[in-house]
Amino acid sequence: MDKQKYAEIVKKNSPKSPDLKNCVWAFLIGGFICAAGEGLCELYGFLGFGKKDAGTLCSVTLIFIGVFLTAIHVYEKIAKRAGAGTLVPITGFSNAMSSPAIEFKSEGFIPGVGAKLFNVAGPIIVYGTAASVLYGGAVYLWGLFY
After folding, report:
1. What's the maximum distance between 2 C-alpha atoms anywhere in the chain?
2. Do 44 and 54 touch, CB atoms closer than 8 A?
3. Helix/strand/coil (H, E, C) string of the chain?
4. Which among 8, 11, 94, 98 counts the fewest CB atoms within 10 Å?
């Protein structure tokens, strides 16, 4: 069986994805997370923290909430419905970091948590750092010549 015929069979027998509905859920849940973050920043500002400190506290709070919801197995239920709406905000990163650590805690602190902590987020950190170094180098070189 050739690839094209196989692809046609797969397409014919695969369930149709409700793209519009998925996009709406991602928008609503992602928007809610972002609005909650803005609300936290405003709350911390109201409590007397400066803009920079309020932003830092907001990030830490959202990370904590993401890890907490992951630990009690609620985040995965929300993510199943919202998809990228939960992946893109900082809560998605905290979920990606904490999920493997929580899952493998029974294997011990070093071989379980320590070894699995960066399974998902490790490549993101590595490639993000490499991309920022390349971008910084390009901006620096651009500044030398222009």
Report:
1. 68
2. yes
3. CCHHHHHHHHHHHCCCCCHHHHHHHHHHHHHHHHHHHHHHHHHHHHCCCCHHHHHHHHHHHHHHHHHHHHHCCCHHHHHHHHCHHHHCCHHHHHHHHHHHHHHCHHHCHHHHHHHHCCCCHHHHHHHHHHHHHHHHHHHHHHHHHC
4. 11
